Amino acid sequence: MSQSINRRTFHKKAAVMGALAALPSTRLMALHSNDPVRLGVIGVGNRGDQLLDAFLVHKDCEIAALCDVYEPYLDAAQKKVGGKSTLYHDFRKLIEQKDLDAVVIATPDHWHALQFVAACRAGKDVYVEKPLSLTISEGQKMVAVAQETGRITQVGLHRRSSSFIHEAVRQIRDGAIGKVTVAKCYHLRNESTQGIGSPPDGDPPAGLDWDLWLGPAPKVPFNPNRCLYKFRWFWDYSGGQLTNFGAHYLDVIQWALGQDAPQAVFAAGGKYAVADNREIPDTMEVIWEYPGALVIFSQFNASQSPGNIKGCELEFRGTKGTMLINEGSGFEIIAESTRTRELPALSPLNRKENALQSQSARKAREPVVVRGRAETADHTRNFLDCVKSRKSTNCPVDVGHRSTSATLVAKIALRLGRHLTWDGKAEKFSHDEEANRLLAYEYRSPWQLA
Predict the structure, then answer these.
(1) What is the DSSP letter of 36?
(2) What is the pLDDT of residues 131-184, one digit of tens each?
(3) Ranges assigned E (strand) in 46-88
(4) Which domains, ranges and CATH numbers included, belong to the chain?
């Protein structure tokens, strides 16, 4: 009898282990609150290096694997994490590592979708940098795969994890500055007239796999300005600061307005200040139309000329006041003045009375100053907590997709140079097939987003 029971128990255990082995490659046991979350990081230069810092401050985090196509970045990252991580040249090998709980993606924009989808399908949770995707169609696929696989996701719009930004959004939505009709955001950066220069094409530096860096993007000769951080000035890999910083700004603006998509967009700009080989303008203005409000993104080739009276990155104008937000210092509400009663029509007989009444105007509300700072480490903390709890993060992929999409439709309007109407539910332009063709692009073989 005991032998029969043991035999049945063995076969049941064998069946369970066989089923588990068929699951995607990830750790089998659920994490406890004190367990370290084992991470693999893809892309460890520039923003990837900053993310390493933001994760390493948390003691329940272990950087178990690192990947980059540029060896100097990989060497520096290995030293930073203590020399214990497994190193990879190809991200696909990192994703296959079975003992990873999550993958962090900090590669150029044109790589996000492929790596995100592969990680989700391999059973890994994913922290992916913004902008979420290079195109709208990529973002749609990322949202669908995350839902299909049930993975925990976080998009690197770190203002979502800032307590003072939460308070600013709450006050706007509660009517603290009245009806908001205009929201503005600014990117200011003065560059010399030569900009990033115009270096000739040539051979890639030692330790860089140029073909793998390009991945799904069109095959072109290596140029120093197309690679590493400067990729942001070329359409094949980015949308410039409009999608880079703009995704941060539009995320907060849409959140505060209670909207997730514009109704229309227009953009204009050009290379007005610099003479280099970039493709993306150094100066631009974008206007989105939302129900009851305009949203404006301004990019100036200047640093000392603030876009508003305080030089803040975000500005909300309401009927009771203006809120100015700066991620490094906090927010301020500047109160509007309102008249205490209606003024009679001006005439020679009542000019004196009119003047007295105009002096009786009062503030619509009290001014407010709230200090704070948006830290990436708070955002990584939220991600680690949610990997353990399996609760939704502060910025899951569907939220990051909508915030990124607002900037991507503006990128298309800028390239086409015309006003475009956007259907947020269908996620396509109304009656403009040329614009809709730019919602996706054909990947270079053999890369496919499956």
Answers:
(1) P
(2) 999 999 999 999 999 999 999 999 999 999 999 999 999 999 999 999 999 999
(3) 61-67, 86-88
(4) 23-158 (3.40.50.720), 160-374+398-437 (3.30.360.10)
